[in-house]
Amino acid sequence: MKKTYFILFLLFFQIPALSSNVHLEKEYQRIWCAKNSGKLEYKLPDSTRVDCLTQEYAIEFDFAPKWAESVGQSLYYAICTNRKPAIVLILENGLKDYKYLKRLLVIAKLYGITVWTMKPTDIYTDCPSS
């Protein structure tokens, strides 16, 4: 029984800590959305949430490896809100992430999805750069 609890502990508490993301997705959302006068986590009638809703766009945020998932979500949110679809793709792994951006741009062009990118350096810190 102790072994079972230990395994559950590892699954639920340790695996998220092993995440390789520099910042949480919601940190990128908060900064981008505030800078662009958007509404953060706009709730739809079906209880799904648009990461950021502006006057013009329904925006989905995702890390680069999840580029394909962001396409469907942005299109769905755009339909539900009568806004244009958009994605902010988060690039935290340098050149490794550009292959995902290139794939996304092919699809985005075909479906009229606006794409922006963010990097860890876009997250403000309390300390000035030296």
Describe this protein with a few key phrases.
single chain; 130 residues; alpha/beta; Trna Endonuclease, Chain: A, domain 1; five-stranded mixed β-sheet; 4 helices; 5 strands
Describe this structure in words.
By secondary structure, the protein is of the alpha/beta class. The chain has one domain (23-122): Trna Endonuclease, Chain: A, domain 1 (3-Layer(aba) Sandwich), CATH 3.40.1350. Helices cover 41% and strands 22% of the residues. The protein has a 5-stranded mixed beta sheet with strand order 1-2-3-4-5. Strand 2 and strand 3 (57-63) form a beta hairpin. It is globular and about 35 Å long. It starts with a helix and ends in a 12-residue tail after the last strand. The relative contact order is 0.15.
H/I helix tally:
4
Uncertain runs are 4-18
Q: Determine the mean pLDDT.
A: 85
Question: Termini separation (Å)?
Answer: 53 Å
**SSE-based structural type:** alpha/beta
Number of strands: 5
Largest β sheet strand count, sense and barrel closure? 5 strands, mixed
Count of spatially separate domains? 1
Strand order of the largest sheet: 1-2-3-4-5
The percentage of residues in β strands lies in 15-25%
